[in-house]
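Q: Give me the 3D complex with adenosine-5'-diphosphate.
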Amino acid sequence: MSTAVSMATLSLYGREAGVLVAASALITLSVLSLRANWPGWARAVERIGFNIGMGTISIFLAGTLFDLLNALNTQNLVVQTFISWLSAAIVNDQINLWLLIALLHLQSQADPRKLWHQNKWAIPINVLVMSAGGGVLAFAVEQFDIIGMGIFFLPIVLSAYAFRLYVNQTKQQMERLEELVAARTNDLRAANAELAELHKTKDAYLAVLTHDMRTPLSSIKGYASVLSKGNLAEDQQRHIAKILTRSQDSLMEIVNNILEIENLQSGTPIELDRTDFDLAYLIVLVSETIQAQAREKNISLQYDENPTEINVNGDREKIKRVLTNLIANAVKYTEENGTVTAKARVEDGYAVVDVVDTGYGIPADELPYIFDRFRRVKGHRHIAVGTGLGLAIVKSLVEAHQGQILVTSEEGAGSTFTMKLPLQTDDALVA
Ligand code: ADP
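A: Here is the predicted complex, encoded as structure tokens.
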């Protein structure tokens, strides 16, 4: 637009006035851009200098050509006036463009022909704005003086303002759209991670069902077919019955663990049916039920048969489950002729139970993950049937009591699982 105004000025008031208007328009535009981009002021000042030079040179040359052609147009012919305007506009535009191309070439060795090709689409628009815009403005001012300028500028200013509003709004909408896309992408990523986690869990369950349940099932099938053949001595029958019961117990344990872990990890808080009970005596009861398994492997299961009472407040059934898992694991992962000890004591406001075994132990690199769901020591898979859920259940139940479960272990030497339950629970304190 500034070039159109300078063109109008040069036709109305002469070449020097056109140069002046071009220079002041460029200074104003540069100051405006400087204000919007204050930190880059040093470069902006350089740019002002170059722009003024470029603008004034091109308008000066355009003005010279315009004056020359106008001098030939003595009869004031419309066609000739039109040619003067058009030629001056082309000269103005091309000088501007080529000065800019020369600068870019000097700065970055850019290929001038390529630069011209890249910008050539703007040439007809510029020439049109300058010649038509400048011509109409000059005509308006000549005919209506200062009001002409208003008539010319008002619609331009208004439409420029409307255009700017439209651009701003589009920009805002684009930003909002980008935010929305980013939010949706995040949602999708989270859903994918959740899905991957679900797939992993599903695979783990399938592994338990296909691998761990298979062993007791095949054992039941095999011995049942031996039984069905008949003619077995009584002690053989008793032996088979024992194996069948053990296999059935294993299956029961797997099913119970799967059902229980689903409840415990569903996110709903674990409900505790609290009562006061003797933790030391609970060890006796649990050990008695596991004694048979220990005897089968000739494992010495040691516990105090008349222990001093340790009164705790908690869900007795759930703590019984914890002790059963810990003591049964100790027997399960200890070779024949080993020892398992279960003992309770009081320490620092906690009722503490240690379950110590002289078994296979857990490798140090697997120890930190041993309470995770489905986690089993690799070398133990062929030793005993299991789901890798027992210790995850133990941890959830102990933590529901604001207690702690700890483990120390040495491969080949044995493990110690320690359960700590607070003697004074938060609930008891509140009561
Ligand atoms: P599982 O059904 O496999 O016994 P658990 O969650 O009870 O599942 O135990 C997880 C794993 O921790 C077991 O597979 C075993 O490798 C290891 N583990 C548990 N208790 C002991 C122990 N007392 N000694 C050695 N390893 C143990």
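A quick observation: The first strand starts at residue 274 and ends at 278.
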